[in-house]
Specification:
With about 270 residues, this protein is α/β, with parallel strands linked by helices. It has a single domain, classed as Rossmann fold (3-Layer(aba) Sandwich). Helices cover about 45% and strands about 20% of the residues. The chain contains eleven helices and eight strands. It has helices at about 20-30, 50, 60-65, 70-75, 100-110, 130-135, 150-160, 180-195, 210-220, 230-250, 260-265, and strands at about 5-10, 35-40, 75-80, 80-85, 115-125, 140-145, 165-175, 200-210. Strands 3-4-2-5-1-6-7-8 form an eight-stranded mixed beta sheet, sandwiched between helices. Strand 6 (about 140-145), helix 7 (about 150-160) and strand 7 form a beta-alpha-beta unit. Helix 1 crosses helix 10. The chain is globular, with a radius of gyration of 18 Å.
């Protein structure tokens, strides 16, 4: 990947569609494919990836910004090459303006200059706090489900994001089959092109079926991508597709990366 970290934000128009579960398992799948990956818990108000990954976050990114810890002190190693950057339940991170600590924070990011991917698990919805993380990311993946309210909220999200982006990725979760996933994607894509912009590209990167094994894994605080199941194979296919797309794009860019992402967030 040329040592340029690709920052991918995972979001959804509404809660309850499996966004955080997908974020964690997609990050793990990319790691197992040979990439160096960090997962950033940016779901302000409900930061809980440490629970899902069975680790205890004693300090979070907010402690770094307050000068109470160094960046290297908060990062949790899940496996060698797969890391968690714990978030904070509260929007104080977005109200930080101490330049001295800010500079130390950016300096601390050099620990991760060789990351291939930073997967950012954002909150759901179109709140200002969510938009900040989405605007700062290189790419955005919108997770949606077959329920009408989820599709409607996803369209609203697409409409807002299209003001600054020409491409968005869509991931369908909790579908019955590929036919249903394709149908939802085609409808969303068609409506978006007709009512937002004909140049907007919405790319379907995959789907996950409604699967009791995923639910069981979440309840037992494990990653379904660690198991040999249909859902695990699907998330690995999604990871491969995403990596392939971004690997091609990274050859044409040289201004993306971890520092740029966090600088943009903190300058809000």
């Amino acid at each position: 990947m040329g040592n340029i970290t690709k920052v991918i934000a995972i979001t959804s128009g509404k809660g309850g569609v499996g966004k955080s579960t997908i974020s964690a398992n997609l990050a793990y799948a990319l790691y197992k494919l040979g990439f160096k990956v960090a997962l950033f818990d940016a779901d302000i108000g409900l930061a809980n990836l440490d629970i899902l990954l069975k680790v205890k976050a004693k300090k979070t990114i907010l402690d770094v910004l307050k000068g109470k810890a160094e960046f290297k002190d908060i990062v949790l190693t899940i496996e060698n090459g797969f890391y968690l950057i714990p978030g904070e339940s509260g929007d104080e991170i977005l109200n930080f303006d101490d330049k001295e600590i800010y500079d130390k924070f950016i300096e601390g990011l050099k620990l991760f200059n060789d990351l291939d991917f930073l997967i950012v698990d954002t909150g759901a919805g179109i709140d200002k706090q969510v938009q900040i993380f989405l605007d700062a990311a290189d790419e955005v993946v919108i997770v949606t489900a077959p329920e009408p309210t989820s599709i409607t909220d996803s369209y609203t999200m697409i409409k807002i994001l299209s003001k600054k982006r020409k491409r968005l990725f869509l991931l369908l979760n909790l579908v019955d089959n590929q036919k249903e996933a394709n149908l939802i994607y085609q409808k969303l894509s068609k409506v978006a092109k007709e009512n937002i912009s004909p140049d907007l590209v919405i790319q379907l990167i995959g789907f996950l079926k409604r699967d009791k094994k995923i639910q069981k894994a979440s309840l037992s605080r494990t990653l379904f991508s660690r198991e040999n199941s249909h859902s695990s194979k699907q998330i690995f296919l999604i990871a491969k597709k995403l990596a392939h797309i971004l690997e091609r794009k990274v050859l044409m860019e040289n201004e993306t990366g971890l520092n740029r992402f966090f600088k943009k967030i903190l300058k809000f």
